[in-house]
């Protein structure tokens, strides 16, 4: 009786933890395989413990070339998409203008379109326009699908901002540029940084759209795809594990910063932000 | 209103300099121009180009060039040739969606309502899989489901699987991979909806003699509808267009429409066919999405 009562109270949490286990399992396997010496090139089973893969992550040099290329593409695409998307977010939140709903549709559609359709349609465009495919066509494609996510992320931050802070700055004789530099930008920056990180991770991990627009250029996901047919070098799991560790570190740092900021806010007293009940 | 009062009294406020107000009106368009142009040129125009390519003369080739012959027959032709893959795409994605709902709803509910101070940590756990590469994660399932692996061994020992039965290279593996890969997209919007659910409403329902099942059906479920609809779409759209799981965890017998489109464009170089298939995929997804939205009755998610 007591056991069934205990289960009735907690079964949701128990199921949730099991599902989280299901989500975590492949990451644990990737981490374990990064210490594996496979018995053959095409084997996916754990064979023997070794540190060699971590000591020589670039033993297969074309894999490291692919990682470097993915980072370069991700960096350029992130910078361009973040700038374009942030400008659009400012226009949408801060200005009233005609054609707003059309722009909203234009931003929403790429997020709702299957990647396959975006990838093949860009391929059709590049081929018919005679544009040779390679590094820069990948960058163009990545900027295209990242922009919408940047707009959405920055918009959320901008919309939640207290405009009275800027009005106060203007009342204190700050001109527009000073207000933007000293008040607006620092307040929106966390949103822009989050958008940039999202854009980079989308770009770095994209396979489907890249696959159609890469020509002979090989990014990290394309390398893994090709290697899956020929046999995966165990160093792929080293890269996978390292990526995971870096991302986890970033999340940890930002949550620490967030906690400190919240404590500082608490000390500074209530912000006096009025909430409308709608 | 107070701003307008002096105007009516005959003291118009000083008009802003004309140049300044002109710039103000232009500013939003200047801010929008680069991004909107990028999306128009590299998202909008390509769709038109793809539509055109789907009507090219199918007897042309990439080297000799294609002639625009408005070959509408491309569509029935590809449908006739590849309807099993189409059906399979939506079948697998639908099956994965059902599985994901069974797994994802309790997860989202537990994080939103039961996790207390562990909420943020559990949320990080939900998105954590996305910290590492999609392909590398999917390949890890090859290890987990391997014929020599612990899971298959266990299932064979308890006779849930025949002694020579396999998990890898079966429809099961593909559906499992799809469920795994897109589950976070379902859980996050669902969580956002459930987080706003006031637990006192559930208490009120229980006070009014609702059984837990009734309380769920009449209170929790309707209130989580916006998140449920958004999450289902975010799951279903990429899952039905995916071909990575079918390629890595399945065999050609499990190929989905994405595999066919991929090989049409990159292996067979049959652009009219590939373009027609892409458009059919998009049309099918749009039809499913709008049909679903109409039934779910929550159009505001768009």
How many alpha or pi helices of chain B? 13
Provide the CATH top-level class of chain B: Mainly Alpha
**Mean pLDDT figure of chain B:** 87
Of all chain pairs, the largest interface belongs to:
A-B, 82 and 84 residues
Which secondary-structure class do the elements of chain B indicate? Answer: mainly alpha
Report what the structure shows.
The complex is a heterodimer of chains A (278) and B (302). With 278 residues, chain A is mostly helical. Chain A has a domain at 60-236: MetI-like (MetI-like fold), CATH 1.10.3720. Chain A is built from eleven helices and no strands. Chain A has helices at residues 2-33, 52-55, 61-94, 100-112, 115-128, 135-159, 163-171, 176-205, 208-213, 220-230, 235-267. In chain A, α3 (61-94) runs parallel beside α6 (135-159) and α3 crosses α10 (220-230). The radius of gyration of chain A is 24 Å and the shape is globular. In chain A, 38% of the residues are buried. Chain B is mostly helical and 302 residues long. Chain B has a single domain, classed as MetI-like fold (Orthogonal Bundle), CATH 1.10.3720. In chain B, 71% of the residues lie in helices and 0% in strands. Chain B has 13 helices and no strands. Chain B has helices at 5-8, 18-53, 74-114, 119-127, 134-144, 150-157, 171-195, 199-207, 212-223, 225-241, 244-249, 257-266, 271-296. The two termini of chain B are 35 Å apart. Mean pLDDT of chain B is 87; it is low at 1-18.
């Amino acid at each position: 009786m007591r056991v069934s009562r205990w289960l009735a109270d907690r079964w949701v949490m128990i199921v949730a933890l099991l599902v989280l286990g299901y989500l975590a399992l492949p990451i644990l396997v990737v981490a374990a395989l990064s210490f594996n010496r496979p018995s053959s090139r095409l084997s996916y089973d754990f064979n023997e413990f070794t540190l060699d893969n971590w000591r020589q992550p670039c033993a297969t040099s074309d894999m490291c070339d692919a990682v470097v290329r993915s980072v370069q593409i991700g960096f350029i695409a992130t910078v361009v998409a973040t700038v374009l998307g942030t400008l659009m977010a400012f226009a949408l939140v801060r200005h009233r203008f005609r054609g707003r709903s059309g722009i909203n549709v234009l931003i929403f559609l790429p997020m709702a379109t299957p990647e396959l359709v975006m990838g093949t349609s860009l391929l059709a465009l590049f081929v018919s326009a005679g544009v040779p495919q390679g590094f820069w066509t990948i960058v163009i494609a990545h900027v295209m699908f990242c922009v919408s996510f940047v707009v959405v992320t920055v918009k959320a931050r901008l919309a939640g901002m207290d405009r009275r802070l800027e009005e106060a700055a203007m009342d204190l004789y700050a001109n527009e540029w000073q207000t933007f530099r000293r008040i607006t930008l620092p307040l929106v920056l966390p949103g822009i940084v989050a958008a940039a990180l999202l854009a980079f991770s989308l770009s770095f991990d994209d396979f489907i759209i890249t696959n159609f627009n890469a020509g002979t250029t090989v990014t990290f996901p394309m390398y893994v795809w090709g290697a899956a047919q020929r046999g995966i070098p165990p160093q792929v799991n080293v890269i996978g594990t390292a990526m995971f560790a870096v991302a986890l570190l970033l999340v940890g740092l930002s949550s620490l910063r967030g906690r400190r900021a919240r404590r500082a806010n608490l000390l500074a007293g209530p912000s006096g932000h009025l909430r409308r009940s709608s | 209103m107070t701003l307008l009062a002096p105007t009516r009294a005959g003291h118009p406020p000083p008009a802003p300099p004309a140049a300044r107000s002109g710039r103000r009106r232009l500013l939003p368009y200047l801010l929008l121009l680069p991004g909107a142009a990028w999306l128009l040129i590299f998202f909008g125009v390509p769709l038109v180009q793809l539509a055109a390519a789907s009507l090219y003369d199918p007897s042309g080739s990439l080297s000799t060039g294609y002639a625009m012959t408005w070959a509408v027959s491309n569509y029935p032709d590809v449908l006739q040739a590849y309807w099993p893959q189409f059906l399979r795409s939506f079948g697998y994605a639908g099956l994965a969606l059902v599985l994901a709902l069974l797994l994802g709803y309790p997860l989202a509910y537990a994080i939103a309502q039961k996790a207390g101070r562990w909420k943020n940590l559990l949320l990080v756990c939900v998105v954590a899989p996305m910290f590492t590469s999609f392909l590398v994660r999917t390949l890890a399932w090859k290890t987990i489901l391997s014929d020599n692996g612990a899971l298959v061994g266990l299932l064979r020992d308890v006779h849930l699987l025949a002694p020579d039965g396999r998990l890898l290279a079966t429809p099961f593996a593909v559906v499992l991979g799809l469920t795994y890969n897109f589950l976070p997209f379902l859980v996050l919007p669902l969580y956002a909806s459930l987080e706003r659910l006031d637990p006192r409403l559930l208490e009120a329902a229980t006070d009014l003699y609702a059984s837990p099942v009734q309380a769920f059906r009449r209170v929790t479920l309707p209130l989580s509808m916006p998140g449920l609809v958004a999450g289902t779409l975010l799951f279903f759209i990429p899952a039905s267009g995916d071909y990575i799981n079918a390629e890595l965890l399945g065999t050609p017998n499990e190929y989905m429409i994405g595999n066919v489109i991929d090989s049409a464009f990159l292996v067979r170089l049959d652009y009219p066919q590939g373009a027609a298939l892409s458009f059919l995929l998009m049309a099918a997804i749009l039809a499913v999405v709008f049909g679903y939205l109409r039934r779910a009755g929550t159009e505001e998610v768009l």
